[in-house]
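Q: I have 305 residues here and want to know how they pack in 3D. Can you give me a structure?
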Amino acid sequence: MGKHAVVVGINYKGSGNGELKGCTNDAETMTRILLEKGYNVATLSDGHSKWYKPTYEIIMLALEDLISNKKAGDNLVFYFSGHGTQENDGGRDERDGLDECIVSSDWRAISDNTLRDTFERVPDGVSCTAIMDCCHSGTLFDGQHRLIHGDKNLDRSSSSARLRPEVSAPLKKPATTNTRFIPLSQVEEQYNKLHGHRDTMARSADTCVARSMALPQRRKGRRADTTLLLSACEEGEKCLDVAPHDGTAPFGLFTKALEVAYRQRRSARYDELVWEVRRMLRVAGFSQNPCLEGTRAMASVAFLQ
């Protein structure tokens, strides 16, 4: 059984009001956890020279490598911390008329359709998990089964266990917060500044890069959910980037809460951790609603088993 992961953290340094603070730290956090769990990890980040910069093409090549030559019993993880955005889907398949996207370090949009199509190519029996700490992440893989979603203030299945002070303290510190959302118009503006000309790839480079890559052939028709998605918020919500006032390292609120929940309950299942993260954010007074999408069988196994 192989265990493989791609971790992406993007702060968009030097982009003015598009810059984030905690995403590269999130990538380090998740890399540590995945290594603890025995994964082979490829980390992409714009905050450390030792890692490849997460441009559109490098992210897509890393995902191609992640899904290629895998067999039943393998476990794959894709983690992303950075900006999320939305674009018009042209009336194709979204109930709200919008495609959710993540944004690469070179300001190109990677749509939910591209992510779904990529992971639908994995062979049967391969376990795929995506953890997305960005705005509008709730349906980034267009799954057919939404297991945990909606207003967390109405949750009844959350654990009643008390959080240990030493692990929950980071969520309670005074801090400056910013959302991990950027309008598509600003993505295009940043792209034009970086590349010096207007190009349709600023809106969505999906087809341009896909044509140049030898990705496995997509299966005809939609498969049942192939990827378990842990998302920072609902598809129509924004999530928070947090910079504590005491000078400690900035972080994504969802990633930090997930780390806290995992450190407290290392053998917990995916669904148990998401319930716990929602409870933690509710108690701490944060508005974003983390979600879980996939089948019950996927959600009922231990986190990063």
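Q: Anything worth noting?
A: Confidence is low (pLDDT under 50) at residues 200-222. The two ends are 11 Å apart (CA to CA).
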